Fold these 2 entries.
Entry 1:
Amino acid sequence: MYSGLIGKVQKARQYSHERERVDISDFAASFQGEHGNHQVIFHQSAWRCSCDFFSGHLTCSHTMAMERMLQGMLPEQDPAEAVR
Ligand SMILES: [Zn+2]
């Protein structure tokens, strides 16, 4: 039993460096910004954030930061979608 678990831990360590194995479909987080907490959501390949800037620009420092953190694990974006 223990040897089986050790194998799983070793595989987990290997997987944790292989971001291409993961495709995030839905994601929600509380983001601690400099001026308060914001709710960041990724759903159906689109970001949302509760901050004021996002409502006017459909992007913000919080969603851009999350994109960087999750690089390689988000679905490929349709170029036409990215322009909107
Ligand atoms: Zn934001």
Note: Residues 18-75 form one domain.
Entry 2:
Amino acid sequence: MNSNEKFLVYDDDVPEQAEAAWDKLADWYSARKRGSYEFKMQLPAILNLLGNLRGKSLIDIGCGPGAYSVDFAKRGANVLGVDISRKMLDKARNNAKMKNIPLTLQKADAHSLPYKDDSFDVAILIFMILNSKTIEEAARVLKHGGLLLVSDTHPTLEAKGHWESEKTSAPRIIEDYFSQTKRKWQIRHSPGRIITLKYYTHTIEQCFNMISEAGFEILRIVEPKPGRDVKKSDPVHYDRCSRIPYFIIYLAQKHM
Ligand SMILES: C[S@@+](CC[C@H](N)C(=O)[O-])C[C@H]1O[C@@H](n2cnc3c(N)ncnc32)[C@H](O)[C@@H]1O
């Protein structure tokens, strides 16, 4: 193994760096995704917000291993999953094949989507880089009246802070909510290999305004809570997520 390969640092906002990082993280990410507490908490809330998807054209931007995309397709949507990482798209292809679900998958950069204006009924951004360019691109490819769903880590959890102790019941101390600057996510994706991913976080005010300024009306905000399935599979996160918001979902509609 190349000694430089042990500790790699990438910037998620730079498409070439995101591609290199997520190609390396694809095995790790797709293996942990489906059974994860985050998936169990988000999926029901997301499906509930989106309502009837039958016959809708849906673009899942930064679809990763396609965990959510297959559920949108199961609900009758015609799903196009796009991602900058070929390895992630391979995972999504395998996932769809195993479940016998039709998905169209394409490699594309969320900052400049190769699709015409007004093409889709629904656009999805789940745990994707959020900046004005990615939201504006989602707005451009959506039809007027189309729905945008953004689901991300909750800004209070991203805020500068720490857990008071290792205990499951420990309070979360927020030191500075407003300093949502560049974060470093250290990911031990395989033994001895660590990737550091740098990414920007935003306050709720910033997210709300970014979505609104791109031409949307925000219809709903949801802060999902864990259900019994999480209590069983991941009691630590069940306890913490029952007290502290881990995720936030915005449902918005492009102006008519
Ligand atoms: C944290 S993963 C989320 C995957 C999926 N949405 C999920 O929640 O399971 C972020 C995904 O965004 C993709 N990505 C990062 N930058 C991108 C860009 N500029 N354009 C398209 N996809 C990008 C990555 O390759 C990765 O698959």
Note: The pocket of S-adenosylmethionine is lined by residues 15, 18, 22, 33, 62-64, 67, 83-85, 88, 109-111, 126-129 (CB under 6 Å).
